[in-house]
Amino acid sequence: AQPAKLLVLPGDGIGPEVMREVGRVISWLEKNRGIAFEITEDLVGGASLAEYGEPIRNEVIEKARAADAVLFGSVGDPRWGHVGFDKRPEVAILKLRQELELFANLRPAKVFDALVDASTLKPDVVRGLDIMIVRETVGGIYFGDPRGIETLPDGTRRGINTEVYTTPEIERVARVAFEMARKRSGHVCSVEKCNVMESGLLWKEVVTDLHAREFSDVKLTHMLADNCAMQLVRNPRQFDVIVTGNLFGDILSDLASMLTGSLGMLPSATLGAVRADGKCAALYEPIHGSAPDIAGQGIANPIAQILSFAMLLRYSLNLQDEAKMVEEAVSRVLESGLRTADIMSEGMARVGTSVMGEAIVREL
Amino acid sequence: AQPAKLLVLPGDGIGPEVMREVGRVISWLEKNRGIAFEITEDLVGGASLAEYGEPIRNEVIEKARAADAVLFGSVGDPRWGHVGFDKRPEVAILKLRQELELFANLRPAKVFDALVDASTLKPDVVRGLDIMIVRETVGGIYFGDPRGIETLPDGTRRGINTEVYTTPEIERVARVAFEMARKRSGHVCSVEKCNVMESGLLWKEVVTDLHAREFSDVKLTHMLADNCAMQLVRNPRQFDVIVTGNLFGDILSDLASMLTGSLGMLPSATLGAVRADGKCAALYEPIHGSAPDIAGQGIANPIAQILSFAMLLRYSLNLQDEAKMVEEAVSRVLESGLRTADIMSEGMARVGTSVMGEAIVREL
Ligand SMILES: CC(C)[C@H](C(=O)O)[C@@H](O)C(=O)O
Ligand SMILES: CC(C)[C@H](C(=O)O)[C@@H](O)C(=O)O
């Protein structure tokens, strides 16, 4: 078999140190499961700005295109707060999404039984929580034109952004959500602000039509974004799959993941259209950011990054067994009582990034 | 003294029944405090659609302009889901905000000691919570042009909305937030998505400049909207005043109010520019919606509507003592153990809308 071609982009902050622990898992799989990987690593975000003066090089985008999958760390660094809007570290992830047409960001918010007390919500409200947010990631107000800041003749400045969604853009992401729901609890909740935004009205209509045409076995409900934020706090277990646009998805998925109390545990996948070679472009990254405040201290939780790699094994390499092995190793390590600082609780054993990584490999 | 001219707009769903309880408070103030009110009542939302075929008449907007303050119930009714975008009940509140230039929506999220257990968050996380969200309400993506749904030559449909903010629009609402913070804990957190939206970048710059020029005694911090949603769940007591745009404010203020677990308790005020007569237009409404599922059953909580009226006394009529009397009467009724269904807990006495209203008047 061909080796699996991965592009690894650790990025900024804690990215490199949590990515190092994935390296251990990869070595283990090579040695013990005979899986061949061909790994290329490169710089993105602040790290790329420092070296090359831009947040991501075209060369890196071409490497991403050629890879079977991209494993991404995180970008963002306050030291680059002064660079222009086009040069900020975040451009790296935005460009990757757009250039590879990675339109469906899958963000699970799942409460691990061992960590139910980590949440700021009452255990009864979040126990067993398992939500999948499907967020559109190449359209909406993130990318619409016109955009920018202009100065009017009288000196007033105007900032402008445009939210645009077209029928096919809405359909393809809704399709991912409906298919996802079929493998889960069979319920999709579509979220917009159709009472104030026409783009939300179109969103609702297109999702409703697609549902009637192809997915009437799935239960479909609709919710306004403000109400969804409330319902996520009031009774989050009412949700199975939530599908929504880029901006609402950004906010609601972060909210949902914080309900679990353990951001350092949550992976995500962003999938693209099926390519000529029959595969689909895909990028895997933890939900958490670059956490510059704790970077370099060896205390970051590597689990979200390792579980992102498990998602990669499952979705991009079709290695179901190996994905499961990694996920179960993580569960067992948690059950054994090891905790990084972010998920520490009384009576548990506090460990650093590399001890956690080693323990997971030992469980494998 | 001139009588205070109020326009009362009960609206849809539970609006009329909770507004009736405010009527009792008004009567009490007339009889016992010698305050003269001149009250006009009219229809808005679904109620106006049923009678006049439009969600709000120009005549009602003119009455609102002529009044010292507007006391609003709530609009929204699933029976009007089929009417066109321009006719939906929500247009009533959107038009009032825009026509009267009600640009600063003040939404407190406050946890009452007696109700700390009503939250889905752990008591330790929310006890003493007291946030004021200042939301811009006449600009942003709610009102920007171009907007609408268009069909392209190939049949594809496109939904479009435009987010626009100008320097003066940002400045005036930020000023309200800074002034508010001076009377509270002296901290403003300004929220946008400046890492993906230029309108957010301008927002941040304008707030920063105004702060440096006029409010350097207040502490100013900045936060991205996705992070703010997370921080509201993780540690909501880090906030004092939050200032943000129309769309983020819609979502984040609903989220913040749900942290309290008692939406039926929370009032809001929306203030406009100072007018020629030295007064400023103002509208007061509960945070909760029209709750059509429980309308007409006499079980809705009237407290948010009554506290909205207390805000009206304070901000529009400068009746500080009377505002305080009403607020304290509400606190005492809660301490005495009376609860409507939405805030019911073990060992308390469950009552309906009018018993709650009567009890508050008795405490006065
Ligand atoms: C880094 C930033 C541009 C990004 C976004 O807003 O999409 C991040 O918040 C995310 O959710 O992946
Ligand atoms: C009714 C609706 C148009 C309104 C809004 O979105 O502003 C409501 O949700 C609010 O927050 O007051």
UniProtKB/TrEMBL annotation, chains A, B:
Keyword set, alphabetical order: Amino-acid biosynthesis, Branched-chain amino acid biosynthesis, Cytoplasm, Leucine biosynthesis, Magnesium, Manganese, Metal-binding, NAD, Oxidoreductase
Domain of life of the organism encoding this protein: Bacteria
Entry keyword annotation includes Nucleus: no
Main localization, broad class: cytoplasm
Free-text comment on the cofactor: Binds 1 Mg(2+) or Mn(2+) ion per subunit.
SMART domains registered for this protein in UniProt: Iso_dh (SM01329)
Binding locations of Mg(2+): 226, 250, 254
Domain Isopropylmalate dehydrogenase-like as annotated: residue spans: 5-360
Residues where substrate binds: 97, 107, 135, 226
Cellular compartments annotated: Cytoplasm
Enzyme class: oxidoreductase
Catalytic activity: (2R,3S)-3-isopropylmalate + NAD(+) = 4-methyl-2-oxopentanoate + CO2 + NADH
Keyword Amino-acid biosynthesis: yes
Signal peptide location: none
SUPFAM superfamilies: Isocitrate/Isopropylmalate dehydrogenase-like (SSF53659)
E.C. no: 1.1.1.85
Needed co-factor(s): Mg(2+); Mn(2+)
Known role: Catalyzes the oxidation of 3-carboxy-2-hydroxy-4-methylpentanoate (3-isopropylmalate) to 3-carboxy-4-methyl-2-oxopentanoate. The product decarboxylates to 4-methyl-2 oxopentanoate.
Subunit structure: Homodimer.
PANTHER family: 3-ISOPROPYLMALATE DEHYDROGENASE
Record-given protein name: 3-isopropylmalate dehydrogenase
Gene from which this protein is expressed: leuB
